[in-house]
Amino acid sequence: MAPVAGQVPWERLRVAELGVPLLVERVRVTFLDANHCPGAAMLLFEPPGRRPTLHTGDCRRAAEEEDIPGA
Q1: Read out DSSP for 18-57?
Q2: CB neighbours (10 Å) of residue 46?
Q3: Which of 13, 22, 17, 14 is nearest to 46 (CA)?
Q4: What does the DSSP 8-state code read for residue 58?
Q5: How confident is the model at residue 65 (pLDDT cuts 50, 70, 90)?
């Protein structure tokens, strides 16, 4: 099955296990159980020499923020 234009090619996709860190371009990435719905995961990004970032996937951008620098 070929990807739609602009999507990641299938051969670049990998299965990731929950709780098992992966190294992606020197950044440690760990999928964590989100305890939300079956299969939902949060991603913990740990770049070398920088603070870690936890991406929950639950973010929403309000139209009022569009003109706020850095928002």
Answers
A1: BT--EEETTEEEEEEE-SSSTT-EEEEEE-TTS--EEE-S
A2: 15
A3: 22
A4: -
A5: low
Q: How many Å apart are CA 65 and CA 55, to the nearest integer?
A: 20
- Enter the tokens of residue 36: 């939300």
**Is residue 42 within 8 Å of residue 56, measured between CB atoms?**
yes
Measure Cα distances from 71 to 19, 21, 51 in Å: 30, 29, 19
pLDDT tens-digit profile of 5-57?
A: 678 888 888 889 999 999 999 999 999 999 878 888 999 999 999 999 999 87
- Which amino acid is present at 27? V
Which has the closest alpha carbon to 16: 49, 55, 43, 50?
43
